[in-house]
Design a protein that fits this description.
single chain; alpha+beta; four-stranded antiparallel β-sheet
Length: about 120
């Protein structure tokens, strides 16, 4: 009887942990203006979100490619991207989202090349 109670207690703790972890995924942050761009990629992003970012950046002559993007149950689980532009050297970032521990991952750039930050933000 005690083993059964312990099993159900552990099962409930595991379930609560899964639910709380899933609920803590950050919302994506995408800010693309006439002079700069900042994007925080998150597990909540979809392929459509990635395509939208690519389209918006192309309007400012910034090229972003996604050589690797994997989704798990609709959540972005792994991403590799490269970004470049007329005044921006090629930069590459990659994450599997597991090791970030609530840190932001993405990029901040100014189109004139005066600011280029790629990776953990």
């Amino acid at each position: 009887m005690l083993r059964t109670a312990s099993f159900f207690t552990l099962l409930m703790l595991f379930y609560c942990c899964i639910i709380s972890c899933r609920a803590t995924y950050k919302d994506p942050f995408v800010q693309i203006s006439g002079t700069q761009a900042e994007v925080h990629f998150t597990r909540k992003m979809t392929l459509s979100d990635l395509d939208s970012i690519k389209l918006k950046l192309s309007e400012h002559k910034i090229l972003i490619e996604y050589p690797e993007s994997f989704f798990d149950s609709g959540l972005l689980s792994k991403l590799t991207f490269s970004i470049s532009g007329p005044n921006i050297p090629i930069g590459v970032g990659s994450t599997n989202f597991i090791n970030l521990r609530s840190r932001n991952f993405g990029f901040k750039i100014k189109y004139d090349g005066s600011l280029v930050v790629i990776g953990e933000l």
